[in-house]
């Protein structure tokens, strides 16, 4: 079998009428105005597929971004005459079979075989178990469609160690993707502003380009691969489809990450989707609590999404060395100053909440791990309320201080009820005291936000006059 990616049904998509299907590259472009979105279950695959299809579209037509505007106005898919290169180079998209293969290098064909689980990083390879999923020991394989997804995911998220280079960006990088009303609009929103016509591309040439363009960057090849097909059909352990199985692969280091000058981490500076400060940001590890796992990520993504219009999703993996432990997709609110300010205020307050609640206990010098546990448990509820407010399209007359008091007061009350023992009077006293500290802390944060410290805000004075636990009880 050859399994040509142009025609075979391997890309999971959701049509606007609710139909979930798999389509080939050609059909994805023709139906781009009818397809709601790429519908891979793993958000990492959605990014990898969008970046690859964008590279193919740029390869087929020069400066395609401006031309997509006219197609969107006509409510039509990508015309066939734009896609003549696909038919001219059909053999370049052949995944299996004899001769040249898509993103594979025959020079490694006779190397020692590795478990096919190496291709999808959420599966354990050999005896590893600390991954997103666990696979039984013994014989198993992937279908050709899942193999194609795994190969493309390496372009954006190949992990690095002393044997293998990273992808075009670090394997822990996060990306922001604008979601249009259909796949055509999504292409238009996420493509680079311009692209020149090129004949060479990663699916035509296995040699790393000396001066890579945007097409090469979006479809990078950090591995030399060769897929080994099993002797008979079976069930894919990833998508449970029945058919031909790829049971192992040969794997070597491929293209090195292109940019390295003056940086600890190598990455592509001009990547239109990469979330970065001086270096690409990443999600916190699972060693952090659940609150930090999501809270810090979406706030950093909000800060770095810049002025990209439309509905934006921030997508990234949780990586521990060579192990991918989780993948997260978070919808981003708008980029107004008010939204950024509220996100910063609430993030700063969440960090201080545990210390604030410890002050109302009989012995505030203890660690009080039960308070931290209670705050972590309740934080997702408050985070959800904050994002809903930031995503709201209607004008909200509620001020930031009133909003923060409203969403954090129930959390404080529940924590106090959980950790303060004794009579109802003691609990009510602790609740009142905690509420007073809450209001004072929010007031201080608002003062800090209103006037930078360099301009002489008396924040230090406000902190000094904040009532201590002993003083609060004596008065």
Task: Give a topology summary.
Elements: E1 11-15, E2 20-23, H1 25-30, E3 35-38, H2 43-60, H3 64-74, H4 84-88, E4 114-115, H5 144-157, E5 175-179, H6 183-190, H7 214-218, E6 223-229, E7 234-235, E8 242-243, E9 246-253, H8 290-304, E10 311-320, E11 323-332, H9 337-358, H10 369-391, H11 400-419, H12 424-450, H13 459-464, H14 469-474
Antiparallel strand pairs: 1-2, 1-3, 4-9, 5-10, 6-9, 7-8, 10-11
What does this structure look like?
The protein is an alpha+beta fold and 475 residues long. It folds into two domains: 94-183 and 190-330, no CATH class; 333-474. The chain has helices spanning 25-30, 43-60, 64-74, 84-88, 144-157, 183-190, 214-218, 290-304, 337-358, 369-391, 400-419, 424-450, 459-464, 469-474, and strands at residues 11-15, 20-23, 35-38, 114-115, 175-179, 223-229, 234-235, 242-243, 246-253, 311-320, 323-332. The strands form four sheets. It has a three-stranded antiparallel beta sheet with strand order 2-1-3. The protein has a three-stranded antiparallel beta sheet with strand order 4-9-6, covered by helices on one side. A hairpin with a 6-residue loop joins strand 7 (234-235) and strand 8 (242-243). Residues 453-475 have low confidence and may be disordered.
């Amino acid at each position: 079998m050859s399994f040509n990616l142009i025609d075979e049904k391997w890309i999971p998509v959701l049509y606007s009428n609710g139909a979930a299907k798999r389509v080939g590259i050609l059909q994805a472009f023709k139906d781009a105005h009818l397809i709601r979105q790429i519908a891979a279950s793993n958000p990492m695959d959605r990014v990898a597929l969008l970046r690859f299809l964008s590279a193919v579209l740029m390869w087929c037509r020069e400066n395609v971004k401006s031309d997509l505007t006219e197609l969107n106005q006509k409510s039509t898919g990508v015309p066939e005459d734009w896609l003549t290169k696909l038919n001219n180079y059909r053999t370049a998209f052949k995944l299996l079979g004899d001769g040249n293969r898509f993103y594979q290098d025959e020079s490694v064909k006779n190397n020692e075989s590795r478990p096919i689980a190496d291709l999808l990083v959420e599966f354990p390879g050999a005896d590893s178990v600390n991954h997103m999923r666990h696979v039984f020991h013994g014989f198993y394989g992937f279908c050709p469609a899942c193999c194609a997804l795994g190969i493309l995911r390496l372009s954006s998220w190949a992990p690095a160690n002393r044997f293998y280079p990273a992808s075009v960006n670090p394997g822990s990088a996060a990306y922001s993707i604008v979601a249009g009303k259909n796949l055509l609009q999504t292409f238009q929103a996420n493509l680079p502003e311009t692209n020149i016509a090129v004949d060479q591309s990663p699916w035509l040439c296995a040699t790393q380009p000396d001066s890579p363009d945007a097409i090469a960057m979006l479809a990078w090849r950090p591995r030399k691969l060769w897929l080994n097909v099993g002797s008979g059909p079976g069930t894919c352990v990833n998508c449970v489809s029945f058919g031909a199985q790829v049971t192992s692969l040969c794997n070597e280091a491929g293209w090195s990450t292109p940019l390295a000058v003056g940086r600890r981490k190598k990455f592509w500076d001009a990547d239109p989707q990469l979330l970065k400060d001086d270096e690409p940001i990443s999600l916190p590890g699972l060693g952090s609590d659940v609150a930090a796992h999501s809270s810090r990520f979406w706030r950093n993504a909000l800060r770095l999404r810049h002025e990209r219009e439309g509905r934006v999703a921030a997508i990234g993996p949780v990586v521990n060395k060579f192990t991918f432990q989780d993948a997260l997709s978070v919808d981003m609110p708008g980029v107004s100053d008010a939204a950024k300010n509220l996100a910063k205020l609430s993030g700063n307050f969440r960090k201080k909440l545990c210390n604030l609640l410890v002050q109302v206990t009989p012995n505030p010098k203890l660690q009080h791990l039960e308070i931290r546990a209670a705050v972590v448990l309740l934080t997702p509820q408050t985070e959800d309320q904050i994002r809903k407010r930031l995503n709201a399209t209607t004008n909200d007359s509620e001020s930031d201080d009133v909003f923060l008091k409203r969403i954090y007061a129930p959390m404080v009350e529940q924590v106090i009820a959980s950790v303060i023992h004794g009579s109802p009077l003691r609990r009510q006293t602790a609740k009142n005291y905690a509420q007073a500290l809450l209001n004072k802390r929010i007031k201080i944060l608002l003062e800090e936000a209103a006037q930078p410290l360099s301009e002489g805000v008396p924040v230090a004075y406000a902190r000094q006059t904040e009532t201590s636990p002993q003083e609060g009880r004596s008065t």
